[in-house]
Amino acid sequence: MIPLHPDYVRHTRDTILIQPFAQYLGITVTDIAPGVLDVQMPLAAHHLQQDGIVHGGVTATLADTCLAMAAHTLIGDGERVVTIEFKINYLRPGAGQMLRCRGAVLRPGRTITTSEAEIYAIDGDQKRLIAKALGTIAILPPYAVSSTSS
Asked: Would you say 108 and 91 are in contact if contact means Cβ atoms under 8 Å apart?
């Protein structure tokens, strides 16, 4: 897979860093390659549900961010990505100190890309797969510059 943006690493990292919800959750980027993105998130009390395990919405948000931004690594300057369909399978409860996620593009496209994500819970030396996700990502054109006539 060949990125269209000459500085796709910075472009993708900067796009994640400006997302307020990703910032709130504590999502950070650990690796970026063409069509691949790794992120992590330290777990805190506000990430948990009533039984003390990671809330499914937190896991889904991490997966969605990761698989969409994996697609982002391949887009051109000014283009944008947005998830248009998303499915997640929860395989086991999430617990530990951190979640890690690896997103990968399965099929890149000019307007639609399909990506997947694997979400792991890290507890000490243990790394357990807790969920898998599949998403369809729309590649949107740059924002149109509006002009006003006098």
From this structure: no
Total Cβ atoms within 10 A of residue 98: 15
Q: Is 145 exposed, middle or buried (0-12, 13-18, 19+ CB in 10 A)?
A: exposed
Three-state DSSP class for residue 52: coil
pLDDT 10s digits, 48-106:
999 999 999 999 999 999 999 999 999 999 999 999 999 999 999 999 999 999 999 99
Model confidence, pTM: 0.92
Rounded to whole angstroms, how far apart are CA atoms 133 and 64? Answer: 8
What three-state secondary structure class fits 67? helix
> CA–CA separation, 53 vs 143, rounded Å?
40
Give the pair of three-digit tokens for residue 108: 């890149």
